[in-house]
Design goal:
The structure is a single chain. The protein is of the alpha/beta class. The chain has two domains: 401 residues, Glycosidases (TIM Barrel, Alpha-Beta Barrel), CATH 3.20.20; 66 residues, Sandwich (Immunoglobulin-like), CATH 2.60.40. Helices cover 27% and strands 20% of the residues. The relative contact order is 0.12.
Amino acid sequence: MRQPRAALRAVLVGLGFLWLLGSSTGAGAYATGATLTPRVFVPLAQRAWEYSPPIEMPLGASDSSVDQVASSQAMMDLFRAAGGVYNRTSVSWRQIEPTNRSPQEYDWTFADSQLNTLTNNGVQPFVLILTNPSWASNTPCGPVYDNADMAEFVGALAARYPAVRYWALYNEVDSMTYSRGFHSGGCFGEADLDQNGNPDFADYAEMMRAVWKAMHTANPNARLAIGQLSYDNFTAETRPDWYNGGCCFNYHFLDNLLGYLSANPLPEGEKYADALGFNDYKFYNDHVWQRRYTQVGVGAKAAALREVMAKYGVDLPLVITELSGDSTDAGGVSLDEQARQVAQLMIQGYFYDIKTLIWWVYQDFPDSCVVHTNCGNWKFGIVDQDETPKPSFFAFQVVGEQLRGYTPVKARNGVNVVQFTFGKGEREKHVFYTKNPNGKTKTFKARHLLVTDMYGNTTWYTHQGDKKIKLQLTPAPIYVEINP
């Protein structure tokens, strides 16, 4: 399905959203897409970012293993100016409790610096709990010896950080690669890594049972997410007949997990989890999920997950903490193409009722990055390595500005044109973009059109006596109000 370079990038990206612990050509290169005065690129020290507390929108961006939103006030101000609500970050159990000790003796230094900084600035952390200490498990990413130890730890987290809404146990828990020498934060997709005689998916379920109870005892408003699942790039031994290729993840993990939950119901008032978390990449939406489901992009993969849940009578809200497209490195896509991908994926996810849409990653990895193999080529961020907003930053920002307060109405996945309609009271706003890079002309029966492009530039169109207005649609999403 993909060329060798693309295949390598996909594998590296899948692995590289490795557990979160923690080339620019100058500002002028980014001036091609936007001319709005509030979006002029100027040196960071001169920027005066406007901010007002956002109405709840599910948009956000993720930390990486080398850069965090909370690392500087400048980064925080940029994030808030973009309209970011959720920041995926992480805490390390091994760092906070390196030896078995009571919560009063935990080392909260790094966690306090990250989580308190975010919440004090009005940003919602979505926290992955990562890296088991060696005294608690034989792996950093899989089953633990005693779930009571994990429950005590997470209960202390929930009590200490009551403003944190979402927590998740590990990342990409359906991974099957730990025994092959690598992992992406979670490893419950194999048979029995802890050799306790129970399948690892059952160990994960029992861990969630203990953690959920401890978390909600400490903070009834906290939410525990399953995952985050990859649910892509399935291994040869587990992939279904209709899936070609694959590497790292267990196709059956979610079925096995939900089957276990269904067979082991909990007492009234208790849950295993409050949400189902997954990671989503444009490549797989285009080449796998849209070929099996009628929904567009993110919605197609969401439909697959909801179908599995329905088999077991489960109806959990969906959350995404890694949403991404292509890199803007030399072998990737242009800056404008990345902006189109950001806008399209965020719009899709918002329409299909995904509760958090967190872009991976917020800031480009530096050219000198040596934390992961070839990570210096990972330019997936909406802010570059020099903390300068890329065009995708503004496309992200405009999604929030245009759709805040609107709710999904209908979608049309045409042969050439994708249309989403959103409503607010009696008002409707339509989003259009084409699948064809050459674009397509669309005629509107209207007296007036108010059209906003993906960078926020607005144009007013008036008919010329025939009550018809023609627009040239392109792959860049536009927001259209008819006879406003």
